[in-house]
Write a structure and sequence with these properties.
Growth Hormone, Chain: A; mainly alpha; 17 helices; membrane; signal
């Protein structure tokens, strides 16, 4: 045995890569998560004729998902903390797997509302469970990279769905599209329960890799209640940014297929390539947005100037979407929408980083939870609004105008609430004493 091992000092390189298999499982789950949620969006233009719902009713169906997602975000973290990642993650994906397949049984608007509600409830557990799994399986120096890998599944899922769903629906019917994606979730669940264990209980994990995973100093678990966090303007800056801009992303996910179908007459099989181009551009934007802020910092800019400068560039990328609704050519519209989705993803990468810019690590999870809830509530509101708008006017113009301006408005609000991105001094507010 080496002197370092005898002394309990981890080697400079771990003696194994089993933790990356765990990361691959998280990537697969996140990809399936986004495939499942987007099946309805891809099929929506054609299910509208099949089921007979109107735009307002479709808005209610989307709102049901958003409402459940918001509720799930409030509850999922506590449930997963109590039950552990193996069982907590399994419960989440079991709920969304059954809910995804139950869409195939829906024949009315109410049936789709119920299916979407339980899908949103289950899918809300994915990110809390995945982030907690990364914290258990990776040392701090690798967590950001591991999180980036599994989070890329959101864009992969958004790309795979418009390619896979039309093929399945044309070959075996629209019900099969929901069943196939549900089977993917169920397969992942079975694999997870059979294969996953905590690092200390995993017999295939080498002792040197376990030592590497546990190489950080012990962390003190400190829970910061929302009641303390909401007293800081910095928290409201993040919440406002999520509330104003997350709904635009939900609009992209659930209404773009309907827009392309109604404005350009695309068939179910014709939707695939345009949607793939749009979401590939979104993936590039996610990487570029994070890189741009880092580049500005390397040039000597302050964190405040670099972060907001990158956010401004991303916000300006969304502005041209106002012309997409009047574009005579499909691919001009696709390019403008793709630029906007790229801007959103780059914006989102920087908005999430605002939390670590302004809050200590032990409070970041709570702040992110608040923002995620606000974004989901905003998604509920826009779903209902868009449904009524399209039903009464049939025009996408107001929605695209709103999308083009939302990010600049959000940036202004962030700057007014946190003009220098100064750290929140949580220690300046004493914790409330328990009652005697």
């Amino acid at each position: 045995m080496s002197v370092e091992a005898a002394a309990g000092i981890p080697a400079s390189r771990p003696g194994g890569r089993y933790r990356w298999r765990v990361c691959a499982m998280l990537l697969a789950a996140t990809t399936i998560n986004y495939i499942d949620r987007q099946v309805l969006g891809v099929l929506a233009p054609f299910l509208q004729d099949e089921i007979g719902w109107n735009e307002i009713q479709y808005g209610y169906i989307v709102t049901a998902f958003q409402a459940a997602y918001a509720i799930g975000l409030l509850c999922a973290g506590a449930i997963i903390d109590k039950l552990g990642t193996r069982i907590g993650y399994a419960i989440a994906i079991a709920v969304w797997s059954v809910a995804a397949m139950s869409h195939a049984l829906a024949a009315t608007v109410v049936g789709f509302i119920l299916a979407r509600f339980f899908l949103g409830l289950g899918e809300a557990g994915n990110f809390p469970a995945a982030i907690k799994t990364v914290a258990e399986w990776f040392p701090r120096r690798e967590r950001a990279f591991a999180t980036g890998i599994f989070n890329s599944g959101s864009n992969i899922g958004a790309i795979v769905a418009p390619l896979m769903v039309p093929i399945v629906a044309v070959a075996w019917g629209w019900q099969a599209a929901f069943l196939v994606t549900g089977v993917l979730s169920a397969t992942w669940l079975a694999t997870w329960l059979l294969w996953y264990r905590a690092p200390e209980q995993q017999p295939r994990l080498s002792s040197s890799e376990l030592q590497w995973i546990r190489s950080d100093p012990p962390e003190t678990a400190v829970r910061v209640p929302w009641a303390r966090i909401v007293r800081f303007r910095q928290a409201w800056a993040f919440v406002a940014a999520k509330f104003l801009t997350d709904p635009i992303w939900w609009f992209f996910l659930f209404w773009l297929p309907k827009f392309l179908h109604s404005e350009y007459g695309l068939t179910l099989t014709g939707l695939g390539l345009p949607l793939v181009v749009i979401f590939v551009m979104a993936d590039v934007g996610s990487i570029a947005g994070g890189w741009l802020a880092g580049r500005f910092i390397k040039l000597g800019w302050s964190v405040n100037r670099a972060r907001k400068g990158a956010m401004l560039v991303c916000a300006l990328c969304v502005v041209p979407i106002v012309f997409a609704v009047r574009a005579d050519n499909l691919w001009v519209a696709v390019a403008l929408i793709g630029l906007a989705t790229a801007g959103h993803q780059g914006w989102s990468a920087n908005v999430f980083t605002l939390t670590s810019d302004m809050f200590p690590r032990h409070a970041v999870g709570s702040v992110v939870g608040m923002g995620g809830f606000a974004g989901a509530v905003g998604g509920m509101m826009i779903a209902t609004f868009v449904g009524f708008l399209l039903h009464t006017t049939g025009s996408y113009v107001p929605v695209f105008l709103m999308a083009g301006s939302a990010y600049l408005v959000a940036l202004l609000v962030v700057h007014l609430l946190a003009p220098r991105l100064e750290p929140a001094r949580l220690e300046t507010i004493p914790q409330e004493r328990p009652a005697a």
